[in-house]
Each structure stands twice: as C-alpha cells, then as structure tokens.
C-alpha cells in the first residue's frame, strides 16, 4: 500500500467526522433544525411526502444518520476500513436528497423551499456532504484495486 493511500483514507475519515459535527450542530439547533441547512433534507421530504411520517419518526432517523456518520468516519479515520460500506450507505443516504434537488429544480420546491437560493444551497450541501466524500471513497477503492498484488 502506498503512503498516499492511508493519508487519503485518514483525510476522508476526518472529513466525515467534520461533516457529522455540522450535522449534529444542525440537529441540536435551538427551536429545531433549520430545514434548509440540513444536509440530509431529502430524507424528511421523502418520509413526509411518501410515507406521511411526522417528527416522531423523522428526528430519530436524522440522528441515526448522524450517528452512522460518526461511526463510519471514525472507522475510516482510525482503521482505514469500511470504505465500500461507507460508499454504499452514502449512495442510499444521498438518494433522497438527490430526489429533493430534482423536485426543487422541476417543481420549484412546492411546499418545502420555493426559492432559487434554496435550490443552490441544497445543491451545495449535497455536493459537500455526499458527492465529494463518496467520490473520494470511490477513488480510494479504485486506487486500491489498481495496485499490483
């Protein structure tokens, strides 16, 4: 294993731990989390629109995603493992937000966030919280497969 590979994995783990601090800060916001700043905003949208769940279900699901991010970030940072597990789980957790971005772009938000700035902010958070770390994880996995045995 090259010296750069563990550094990339440690960077990814540290990045994920930083993201989970942001996510925990949002969920502990006084008066409830500001929806537009939620990096996993698509999850509540999906749970409300398609399953008619309320906050009694949504809040625990949000905390489960933050807890998962802490665990997987720590495992990647300290052990350099679970990259594939993280990548698969990130694709699952990012799918509702990708759906929500599509709703914002095509239906101009509906009841949730009708402004163009909301689309830009949600897209930015999606890039920072999902696309960038998933891309780095995929890159690390691909590089590990390219190494001669």
A few lines on this structure:
With 149 residues, the chain is mainly α. It has helices spanning 4-27, 42-51, 55-79, 83-107, 116-146.
How would you characterize this protein structure?
The protein is 77% helix and 0% strand. The protein is mainly α. The protein has one domain. Helix 1 (4-27) runs antiparallel to helix 3 (55-79), helix 2 runs antiparallel to helix 3 and helix 2 packs across helix 4.
Short descriptors:
77% helix, mainly alpha, 5 helices, 149 residues, 0% strand
Layout of SSEs?
Layout: H1 4-27, H2 42-51, H3 55-79, H4 83-107, H5 116-146
Helix pairs in contact: 1-3, 1-5, 2-3, 2-4, 4-5
Termini gap: 10 Å
Give the class from helix and strand content and strand pairing.
mainly alpha
Count of strand segments: 0
> Would you list the SSEs in sequence order as H and E?
HHHHH
Mean pLDDT rating: 88
Biggest β-sheet description: none
**Helix tally?**
5
Shape: globular
Low-confidence spans: none
- Evaluate the radius of gyration: 16 Å
Q: Estimate the strand proportion.
A: under 5%
**How many domains, in number, for the residues?**
1
Helix content: over 70%
